[in-house]
Specification:
About 25% of the residues lie in helices and about 25% in strands. With about 550 residues, the protein is α/β, with parallel strands linked by helices. The strands form seven sheets. It has a seven-stranded mixed β-sheet with strand order 12-25-26-27-23-24-13, with helices on one face.
Length: about 550
């Protein structure tokens, strides 16, 4: 296989792969894998890894596997298995028939452990976790061997078989490798490779009371599947010597482990433990809450797979950890929304406008474009009548200079409609503005304007008798500090109480009665929105995907 021609700069992983292709390493193959543990939903950090692993196999005409690291039955569930599969497909990637599980190899893994025992390279240890930690020493002080380390091969074989047969309780013993208690790498100081877990497994039931640790199962699974480039995040760099040691000692085919920097995103947590806490303690409504950084949450919020793939591309692949501004993700979403979203009119905080010189009972169908960025998007008609809704903050009774929206005596254009003038402000007994009485200019119709009147402001609107009622959910950052991972106290104290604002009775143009979940909409002058999965004809619900304001792009221009 030859490397594809490209004019773009290669990242360091691509440089490694292209060198391997030139030298014929792995016989010109490129075979990657994505190995999630099914103990929670995938998040935006996983999306970066998915795009990298599957993207490399696509670029180099190779293969990529999906392999579930299902080695801890106490935390895993088939719900997570299904969600992982759905999320990767939604992102646009496939693995054909190469869906595997670490549990596919449980018998092989057990026999490999037996091999290591027979070689004198593994032993059954009855130390407690606290004792084991003390025996390992510190990075500057070598570990000390315990009495179990000198057990005979026959003793260890017998004990390990009894572990498999379920004779021991959880926590009473483990299988450890016998490597080097003085190694400067703490992961090489006789690491545990099997522990007892008496919990039913979602695939194997109660067949196995012992389960391999990730470091043991991962490298052997990679070897069995013929992976060429085992791509991991940076925290696994110190695990690489163990990865190589195991495969060398077992005489197995050895892939190359390569580490890259994981994704760190401002205002975002990606710890599954903390994400699970948010769900379990009710800070969010579930794993797919639109405020969550999970792929399912981003999907429900209206993010598109194209925008997430573009984000992963822009972030790139680095060797060192860094913090990415969440504004870049929103920028990628906004760019794609601008291309695909239909422009529609929605009034979130309505105030009534009565056009006093417009005929009562008359309805006029006015034409407007669906998306000015896409000529193929076509046009639609929206009803115009005597009574309209506009946004409350589009009117000011005592405006400052250079205020170009509506005010007493002021004139504005209604989007795709007419110019109107505000003649009277109607208030309730408490002094609250409840209605604006206006006059329209019949010869100022958009596209046919012969009035000669010049106005600087254009407002969106919705016809009162045709308006659709809807619940609209507006989202803000889930946390109030940019570096959530740097919080020393309880992250609960930094959850944004205003991360969700619900508008119960927004007014929408009637075309949105036919909104579809897969479509995206720009509520003109408000932001980008999508139909929520819980929406129904009798109760429309729209989620804010991203606002119109692009502070990230402006900051890049300023810094550039």
């Amino acid at each position: 296989m030859s490397a594809p021609e490209t004019n773009t700069a290669l990242n360091f992983i691509e440089e490694i792969i292209e060198e391997d292709l030139k030298t014929g390493k792995y016989n010109g193959r490129v075979h990657t894998r994505f190995p999630p543990e099914p103990n929670g939903y995938l998040h935006i950090g996983h999306a970066k890894s998915i795009c990298l692993n599957f993207g490399l196999s696509q670029k180099y005409n190779g293969l990529s596997n999906l392999r579930y690291d299902d080695t801890n039955p106490a935390t895993e569930d088939v719900e997570y298995v299904d969600s992982i599969r759905d999320d990767i497909h939604w992102l646009g990637f496939t693995w054909d028939n190469r869906e595997f599980y670490a549990s596919d190899y449980f018998e092989t893994l057990y026999q490999k452990a037996v091999e290591l025992i027979k070689m004198g390279k593994a032993y059954v240890d009855h130390s407690t976790s606290e004792e084991m930690a003390a025996q390992k020493g510190t990075p500057t002080i070598p570990g000390t061997p315990n009495a179990y380390r000198s057990r005979t091969v026959d003793e260890n074989l017998d004990l390990f078989e009894r572990m498999r047969n379920g004779e021991f309780n959880e926590g009473t013993c483990t299988l450890r490798l016998k490597i080097d208690l003085a190694s400067p790498n703490m992961h090489m100081r006789d690491p545990v490779v099997y522990r007892i877990k008496k919990a039913p497994h979602h695939r194997t039931g109660t067949q196995w009371p012992i389960y391999p640790m990730y470091d043991f199962a991962h490298c052997i699974s990679d070897s069995i599947e013929g992976i060429t480039h085992s791509i991991c995040t940076l925290e696994f760099e110190v695990h690489r010597p163990l990865y190589d040691w195991l495969l060398i000692e077992l005489g197995m085919y050895r892939p190359q482990q390569i580490e890259f920097a994981r994704l760190n995103l401002t205002y975002t947590i990606m710890s599954k433990r903390n994400l699970k806490m948010l769900v379990n303690e009710g800070f969010v409504t579930g794993w797919d809450d639109p405020r969550m950084p999970t792929i399912s949450g981003l999907r429900r919020r209206g993010y598109t797979p194209e925008s997430i793939r573009e984000f992963a591309k822009r972030v790139g692949v680095a060797r060192r950890e860094n913090m990415i501004d969440v504004g870049l993700l929103e920028f990628c979403v906004r760019e794609h929304m601008n291309l695909i979203a239909h422009r529609v009119m929605a009034v979130l905080d309505p105030i009534k406008v009565v056009i006093t010189n417009y005929p009562e009972g008359q309805t006029e169908e006015l034409e407007t474009e669906n998306n000015p960025e896409n000529p193929d998007a076509g046009v639609r008609c929206i009803p115009f009548s005597r009574e309209l809704y506009i946004e409350r903050d589009d009117f000011m009774e005592n405006p400052p200079k250079k205020y170009f929206r509506l005010f007493p005596g002021g004139e504005v254009r209604l989007k795709s409609a007419y110019i109107i003038r505000c003649d009277e402000v109607v208030k309730d007994p408490d002094g609250n503005i409840v209605q604006l009485n206006c006059t329209y200019y019949p010869n100022s119709k958009s596209g046919e304007d012969t009035s000669g009147i010049k106005v600087k402001g254009t407002l969106h609107w919705v016809s009162v008798p045709h308006a659709m009622n809807a619940e609209v959910r507006l989202y803000d950052r889930l946390f109030t500090v940019p570096d959530v991972g740097d919080i020393e106290g309880d992250i609960r104290d930094y959850i944004n109480p205003d991360s969700l604002v619900t508008i119960a009775n927004a007014k929408l143009e009637p075309s949105l009665g036919n909104a579809a979940p897969e479509l995206r909409y720009q509520f003109i002058r408000k932001g980008y929105f999508c139909l929520d999965k819980d929406s129904a004809p009798e109760k429309l619900i729209f989620n804010e995907t991203v606002g119109l304001k692009d502070s990230w792009a402006k900051q890049q221009v300023k810094e550039g």
